[in-house]
């Protein structure tokens, strides 16, 4: 009978221990989201990984690629989200669309690498380019409007790193079309593009265009700004982990409280953990002499 009661006591204390751990984890999670993470100090790699994951989620990027993750982290670390971006109404095929521009400088290598990896992940291998002519945006910025059509080789055995002539179209499947505005396009065209070809591999040529573009192909800069500014929901598992580290008094230090209120809650949880552990130990060794 005493053994039965002892087992019940142990199980009850274990349930209480787990409940307290989860309860405080939820409290930390709510505090972090309401304070946009300001009430906690995160080790750089944890915070960066969280922001990268949130960026991919908001951009509906469902595949895993270390290179893509690294490129997103570079965008965050280099503070690309702080650049002045603006949406303008642009006429495309007799329809006004909104396009996102940045006028302080061209997009650069980090964005070029990111967009290349995005396109490559979709299986895109080639592109065709059409110069829509010099275009002065808002009467102040001179650039060339470029129409880019993306294609995928129908046969995987074909060389995806080669350029092809226009009559090769039967072996390519069109995926989609974008418009970008490129500075110094005349120079880029003269240096890299040959009139004899029509379809170019994206591994180099697309990056050259994006690097010198003043227009983003999608909403990535806005999402990057939201995520980098803490405008996202932190995953709860980070704070369940923090609660577990706190209640067990391990204290790894990769997540730290950064406000008086959170420190008080941490102290309360630590005391609860010590008390429960002490009672549990006493219960286990109750009959031992």
UniProtKB/TrEMBL annotation:
Keywords: Membrane, Transmembrane, Transmembrane helix. The chain crosses the membrane at residues 12-31, 232-252, 264-286. It comes from the Bacteria. Residues 235-284 form the Potassium channel domain. InterPro entries: K_chnl_dom. This is Potassium channel domain-containing protein. It comes from Clostridium tyrobutyricum DIVETGP. The lineage of its organism: Bacteria, Bacillati, Bacillota, Clostridia, Eubacteriales.
């Amino acid at each position: 009978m005493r053994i039965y009661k002892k087992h019940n006591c142990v199980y009850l204390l274990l349930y209480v221990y787990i409940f307290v751990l989860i309860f405080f984890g939820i409290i930390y999670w709510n505090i972090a989201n309401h304070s946009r993470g300001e009430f906690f100090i995160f080790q750089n790699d944890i915070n960066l990984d969280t922001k990268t994951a949130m960026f991919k989620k908001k951009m509906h990027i469902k595949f895993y690629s270390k290179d893509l993750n690294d490129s997103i982290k570079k965008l965050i670390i280099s503070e690309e989200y702080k650049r002045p971006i603006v949406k303008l109404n642009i006429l495309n095929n007799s329809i006004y669309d909104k396009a996102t521009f940045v006028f302080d400088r061209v997009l650069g290598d980090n964005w070029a690498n990111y967009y290349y990896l995005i396109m490559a992940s979709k299986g895109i291998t080639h592109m065709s380019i059409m110069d829509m002519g010099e275009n002065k945006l808002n009467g102040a910025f001179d650039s060339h409007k470029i129409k880019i059509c993306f294609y995928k080789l129908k046969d995987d055995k074909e060389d995806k790193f080669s350029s092809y002539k226009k009559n090769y179209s039967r072996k390519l499947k069109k995926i989609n079309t974008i418009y970008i505005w490129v500075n110094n396009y005349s120079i880029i065209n003269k240096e890299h593009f040959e009139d004899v070809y029509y379809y170019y591999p994206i591994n180099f040529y697309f990056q050259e265009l994006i690097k010198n573009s003043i227009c983003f192909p999608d909403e990535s800069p806005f999402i990057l700004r939201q995520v980098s500014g803490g405008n996202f929901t932190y995953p709860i598992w980070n704070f369940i982990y923090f609660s577990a580290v706190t209640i067990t008094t391990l204290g790894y230090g990769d997540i730290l409280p950064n406000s008086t209120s959170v420190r008080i809650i941490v102290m309360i949880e630590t005391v609860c953990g010590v008390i429960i552990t002490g009672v549990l130990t006493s219960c286990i060794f109750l009959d031992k002499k």
